[in-house]
Structures are given as structure tokens and as C-alpha cells.
Automatic annotation (TrEMBL):
SUPFAM superfamilies: P-loop containing nucleoside triphosphate hydrolases (SSF52540). It holds the Pfam family Sulfotransfer_4. PANTHER family: P-LOOP CONTAINING NUCLEOSIDE TRIPHOSPHATE HYDROLASE PROTEIN, P-LOOP CONTAINING NUCLEOTIDE TRIPHOSPHATE HYDROLASE. This is Sulfotransferase family protein. It comes from Clavelina lepadiformis (Light-bulb sea squirt). The lineage of its organism: Eukaryota, Metazoa, Chordata, Tunicata, Ascidiacea.
């Protein structure tokens, strides 16, 4: 591993990771950590992990960023001691808080609500995200409601802790607005001639992921299939009600509901 981007979400991590990709690095962001290592991470959230766990999980990856790796930067550094640390920051705590709240609000929309009911893949993703929220952001139980005071304290303490604990010769405190030069000089890489990339400006990552990310596209396909199945079942249920009577159809739907619930529980395990 070459780079740990240890800044919290909404500190320019998406832009930095895209820049590192353009510099030829194999990068793992939030979605890659989820897709490839969700079982490992859930175990780490709940039971803890070892240096060997982190080394196994990210062997061969050049750069990592976003949740949950920003929280475990120290353990990753122990697993990959030659790695350099990029602490991405915003202009101020207030700017970061506003951006973070805007990002969360972008994902609180009718499409995501439908996915929560109709996509088995999203059910797994939502379960993982809630466990992560409790572990990293101190949300309460399964709640996704933000506690602004707590979030500000986490942001402040995270930056101060890295500034105190990270090896000074391996640390770059950096804003994506600074462009290529500080980043490339820190990594001892030639500065590209193309403009520095900027991604997730004003929280538009939701639209980008829904249109382009394979996992999010699969979730949407599952939602459409579930809607089609539910429409067919409702039509069939209406027909059965007319032909066999409401007493028998109630028993049928109760048995059917139990079957579906058992299948959903098996998916989430």
C-alpha cells in the first residue's frame, strides 16, 4: 500500500482518489471496502481485528479512503508501515459539517426508501451501513439521525489525533483545492499536465453512483423486479379473493408472507 487517505468523508476524498487513479494507483473507496470485505468489517466493528486481518484485506491495493478506513488508519499503517498518510481537510469545521449534512440528505429520498423494501442487495448494504454508523459516527442503535455536536467532536478529535500521532515524515495535511503539486511532491511523482479532477461537488455522488456504479445499478434492477412481482401477486390475490373467498385467501397470504420473511432473513444473515 502506498497511500492512506485518512480524512473523514466530505473532505475531498472522492477527488483525491480519482487523482490517485490518474496517477496509476489501484484504489479502494467506500464501495470496494463494502463489496469485498463487508463480512470482515462487520466482524471488526463488533469484535475487533488484527494486523494480519488488515494486511490480508488490503494486500495489493495502492490507496484506500473513506469509511471505514479513515477510522482505522493507525491499524492500516501498522499493517503497511511504508504507507504515506494524506489527511484531507476542509476550510473549516463549519464548512465540513454543512457538506456532510447535505450528503446525508441527498441519500434520504424516495428511491432509497423503495430500495430498502424491494432490493435484497440494498437490505444488506443498509444493515452494514447502520453497523458502521454506530461504530464510527456514534449513531444510536439503528438510527441514522445525525447528532451534530457528536459529529463535530469526532471531526475535530480525528484531525487533532492524526496530527499528534502520525509520523511527520509520512504525513501530508492536504486540501483537494491545492491541486496536483503538493500531492505529487509528497508522493515523489511527476505532476500531470491535465487539470486536477474534482468529484462529488455539492454532494452529486448520489446521482453519479445511481447511474454508473454496478452495485447500485443491480439494486435498482432488483427493485424493478420486486415491483413487477408484487404487481403480479396483487393481481393474483385479487383474482383468488373473487374466486375462493376472503377466508381462504387470508390463510394463503399469511403462509406466503411467512415464506417471504424467512427468505429475507436468510439473505440478511
Amino acid at each position: 500500500m502506498k497511500v492512506i487517505v485518512a480524512g473523514m468523508p466530505k473532505t475531498g476524498t472522492k477527488s483525491i482518489m480519482l487523482a490517485l487513479q490518474k496517477l496509476g494507483m489501484n484504489t479502494y473507496d467506500y464501495m470496494e471496502s463494502y463489496e469485498y470485505y463487508k463480512k470482515d468489517w462487520i466482524r471488526i466493528f463488533q469484535e475487533g481485528g488484527t494486523v494480519e486481518d488488515f494486511r490480508r484485506m488490503y494486500q495489493g491495493v495502492d490507496a484506500v479512503a473513506d469509511s471505514p478506513v479513515w477510522y482505522y488508519w493507525e491499524e492500516l499503517l501498522e499493517a503497511f508501515p511504508e504507507t504515506k498518510i494524506v489527511l484531507s481537510t476542509r476550510e473549516s469545521e463549519d464548512v465540513w459539517m454543512k457538506s456532510f449534512k447535505n450528503q446525508v440528505e441527498k441519500f434520504n429520498n424516495p428511491i432509497m426508501s423503495l430500495l430498502g423494501y424491494l432490493s435484497p442487495s440494498y437490505m444488506k448494504f443498509l444493515n452494514y451501513s447502520k453497523i458502521l454508523g454506530v461504530s464510527l459516527f456514534r449513531t444510536v442503535g439503528n438510527s441514522t439521525k445525525m447528532n451534530e455536536l457528536s459529529l463535530r467532536m469526532i471531526y475535530r478529535r480525528h484531525i487533532n489525533y492524526i496530527m499528534q500521532k502520525a509520523p511527520k515524515d509520512k504525513l501530508l495535511v492536504y486540501s483537494a483545492k491545492e491541486g496536483w503539486e503538493p500531492l505529487c511532491n509528497f508522493l515523489d511523482i511527476d505532476v500531470p499536465t491535465e487539470p486536477f479532477p474534482h468529484k462529488n461537488v455539492r454532494g452529486n455522488i448520489f446521482e453519479d453512483m445511481m447511474a454508473n456504479h454496478p452495485l447500485m445499478i443491480r439494486m435498482q434492477h432488483e427493485m424493478y423486479i420486486s415491483l413487477a412481482i408484487l404487481t403480479g401477486l396483487l393481481a393474483f390475490g385479487s383474482y383468488k379473493t373473487l374466486t375462493v373467498g376472503p377466508g381462504q385467501i387470508l390463510t394463503y397470504w399469511c403462509d406466503f408472507g411467512k415464506t417471504i420473511l424467512n427468505k429475507v432473513m436468510n439473505i440478511l444473515q
